[in-house]
Amino acid sequence: MMYLKKKSIAIASLVLLIAIAFVINYNYQNGINKNASSKNSLNSQLIDNSKVSTSSSANEQTEATTTLSSGLFASYRQDRDINRSRSLEALQEIVNNKNTSQETRDEAQKQIIKLTETNQKELILENLIKAKGFQDAIVLIDNNTANVIVQADKLSAQEVAKIQDVVSQQTGFPLDNIKIMNRMN
Questions:
Q1: If DSSP states are collapsed to H, E and C, what string results for the chain?
Q2: Residue 69 above 70 pLDDT?
Q3: CA 74 to chain centre
Q4: Maximum CA pair distance of the chain?
Q5: Are 125 and 166 in contact, with CB atoms under 8 Å apart?
Q6: Is the separation of the CB atoms in 103 and 7 below 8 Å?
Q7: Cα(154)–Cα(183) distance, rounded to whole angstroms?
Q8: By CB distance 3.0 to 4.6 Å, which of 78, 117, 131, 139 could disulfide with 122?
Q9: What is the pairing mode between strands 137-142 and 145-151?
Q10: d(CA 137, CA 96)
């Protein structure tokens, strides 16, 4: 009886740890989006105030915005990788702990495999979306839901359908569970 309680507590702790990691990741990414929006609007205001009219300045703005946007996507990836690494480390500690029950160890190993598969799917999807002609994309898969952020000023209905099709084919998720957003340049 006591053995079952320890297992239940260990599994509940594991699930809670993973949930906390995802909540922190979600909140952190929303903070980045807000900061990026304010940076973009600040850049736009600075450009409007200087009344730049030459085409070379417009090209520089486009390059700077592209670099900023690429930096945001790199930042998203880095944050995602850091959070996944932390989750994997916590799970690996559970697996390596001598006091962990076999059932808990098995569950932790399943979670490690699931996280690894999720990482692979996200990378494949990002590359497939880029192959469809988009400059950059980031895919976040969690609980049978895929969130896709594409680097584009706007997305047409056809482009959204194209991305949903790719994500649905790779993940098997229904279209309702696939959310697609664009990041403004």
A1: CHHHHHHHHHHHHHHHHHHHHHHHHHHHHHHHHHHHHHHHHHHHHHHHHHCCCCHHHHHHHHHHHHHHHHHHHHHHHHHHHHHHHHHHHHHHHHHHCCCCCHHHHHHHHHHHHHHHHHHHHHHHHHHHHHHCCCCCEEEEEECCEEEEEEECCCCCHHHHHHHHHHHHHHHCCCHHHEEEEEECC
A2: no
A3: 10
A4: 78
A5: yes
A6: yes
A7: 8
A8: 139
A9: antiparallel
A10: 35
Structure tokens at 12: 């509940």
- Give the separation between CA 6 and CA 52, rounded to whole angstroms: 67
Residues 131 and 162: beta-carbon distance below 8 Å:
no
Task: Report the 10 Å Cβ neighbour count for 71.
Answer: 12
pLDDT (tens digit per residue) in 8-60: 666 656 565 565 555 555 565 566 555 555 444 444 443 344 444 444 444 44
Tokens representing residue 59 in the block: 């090209």
pTM summary value: 0.61
Determine contact, residues 172/162, Cβ cutoff 8 Å: no
